[in-house]
Amino acid sequence: MRSSLRPYLPVLALGVLLALAPLLLTSNVALNFLAVTLIVSLAAQGWNLLGGFGGQFSFGHAAFFGVGAYSSAIWQMRFGLDAWTGLLVGTAMGAVTGLVIGFLAFRAGLRGSYFALVTLAFAEVFRVLANSSEVTGGAAGMLLPLKIGAGNLQFSDRATFLGLVVALTVLVLGLVQWIRGSRFGAQLVALRENEEAARALGVDVLAVKLKAIGLSGAITATAGVLYLQYFLFIDANIAFGTWISVEVLLAAIVGGLGTVLGPVVGALALHGLGELVKAAVGQLPGIDLAVYGAILVVAVAFLPGGLVGLARRRAAPRQVRKAEPEGGRA
Amino acid sequence: MSISNGRIGRRTVLRGGAALGATLAMPGILRAQTPEAIKVGILQPVTGTLAQDGELGRTGAEHAIKAVNDAGGIASLGGAKLEMVFADARSTPEGGTAAVEQLQSDGVAAIVGGFASPICLASSQAAARYDLPYIVDVGVSDQIVSRGLTNTFRFAPGFGTCSKTAIDNLVKLNEAAGNPARTVVLVHEDGLFGSGLAKLMAAELPKHGFEILDTIAHPTPARDMSNVALRIRSLKPDLIIPSSYYGETVLLMRTLHQQRVEPKGFYSVLNGAASNMRFVKEFPEVADLDMDCNHWHDPRKDEAQALKKSVEDAGGLWAYNIPLNYSCVKLLADAIDRAKSTEPKAINEALAASTFEGHIMPYGPTKFENGQNTGARPVSLQVQEGEIKVIYPEEFANAKPVFPIGG
């Protein structure tokens, strides 16, 4: 029992830390920062499942983020249904989109940069469609009416919303940790390391990839729905814009590819340091973005295992050098 | 000093203590004399794609705060001065929301700015959580004032009013010249403002006898306009109506100029370039005789002319963001003065009941309905001899329209 729970300890520890935040923080600046960062980190966890564990790099996770956000918005505004089921619908639509894109791309045997380009193309196509279609409000986007109430997934204080985001983040962290230890997780890592070898060992590569992209799409779509509920406004450039595709990729890479905590740590580090610098330097516009870029360069150049990898290497230098358990190969 | 044998005497201690006490008490005395400054949140995107507009907006706000303070501050609050607390919206709704939270925690009495519609939508909503007064400077989306938020006020005209005025003025312009223009090509950016406007134009212009030859969309940012220009050249329209942001409009106009596309007129609506002196200064030949229906200061007002001169003397460029933000801050100062308080609720009520005339826009006294200033209207402008002139409405036009070009 004890040993089976042991892998979950880091997740639990981070979960407890994050759960304390809405209770202890009183500053709305901090609450807002955490909420937005965790939404990004949730989307990044979706990316990490497919890209980090499965080695299928997507440049177009905005497709899932946007599908989640728009599905929920359409569900609520065009059909007049409630926001909580909207959250489920958004998540489900993300999974379906993942399966469809995955089926088309993986069945055609697309890998590596080809797969990345196809995902990018899907996100762009969705952006153009959302920008011109009546159902999605065209270029005017969709504005959810401000109706504060738990039933509408709109909360008067930021702490409650943050609580919800934290709960979902921890839930997904737990799920990813579970996947990592599961047969499916092992198959996923196997096909990342050597697809041919995995196939030779009897892994159904297409099925594993599809499962991964479906789950990945669902998780990132959930983040999209949360974004919608938080800002109550989306348009094609927000929902399907390249910004989110890049953000999720960066958070996962800086945090640690193929690690459970990587995306959360990465998002917090990137955004947090940017904010700290902004607070310290003050009026110089764009300084936080410069720091953001600098961290990225440093992370890519010197931290192949991301921040989580660095922490591990510090904690157990010899073991890591011998085994490189995960995420070492970006 | 009565320090004997290296020791400090009793009297010295007493004297020193008294001096110290007086020094510490001084700021308190000073505070009592000058009322505490009122913090005003200025929210503009100064990083990201909208940085140029954000800087212009900030310039306008800075000048207004200086003007209010130089005129003695807020009279009803004992001459309290305005103090600018600036926040960068980073050209995104998330950035705007984070900035609102920061401004609220900094203790601002109200927020002015936002510039782009998505930023204004998200930021005003974030401010609504605190009932914090929010004056939208530009954001033309009519959704901004249709949400029933009691804290959100838009001083400038929205999309509906701008496009209607633009079409009215265009029809007037064409009729006055003997209807030389009949065919039109619409070029628009594919976002909220460009698409919306093009759709409206495509629906409205045929009613006035114009024929739409094509509607061409382009993304923002766009790096090449050659294909668009070639398409326009093959269509030979009388009139080109571009609805794009600064960079893309400049690119389009330059490409058309290089390819010698010479229509009878360029008539844009809420365009990012045709009413920007940077364009006029950097590409005078290309910009010459371009028309635009946009926000603009009232050229009859001395204060507007003085502000323009002051901005230009300091090496700055003049664009509509400056007089709009200038006016919005002055509108806020007036509301605080009448509210006699910096409480959000009182300022919101004062804004809602505002009949402010001390602005530099061609609007008349403000009158807010559901947060929209109903008297707000755009004007039609034309670049003539390196200057941006008002050509419509006639009552304060400072130039006659030159249309058709070469006609």
TrEMBL record, chain A:
One of its GO terms (molecular function) is branched-chain amino acid transmembrane transporter activity. It comes from the Bacteria. It is found in: Cell membrane. Keywords: Cell membrane, Membrane, Transmembrane, Transmembrane helix. GO terms for cellular component: plasma membrane. It is a multi-pass membrane protein. The chain crosses the membrane at residues 7-25, 31-50, 57-77, 83-106, 160-179, 212-234, 246-269, 289-311. This is Branched-chain amino acid ABC transporter permease. It comes from Jiella avicenniae.
Automatic annotation (TrEMBL), chain B:
Coiled coil: none annotated. GO terms for biological process: amino acid transport. Keywords: Amino-acid transport, Signal, Transport. Pfam families: Peripla_BP_6 (PF13458). Residues 38-381 form the Leucine-binding protein domain. InterPro entries: BCAA_transport, Leu-bd, Leu_Ile_Val-bd, Peripla_BP_I, TAT_signal. Belongs to the leucine-binding protein family. This is ABC transporter substrate-binding protein. It comes from Jiella avicenniae.
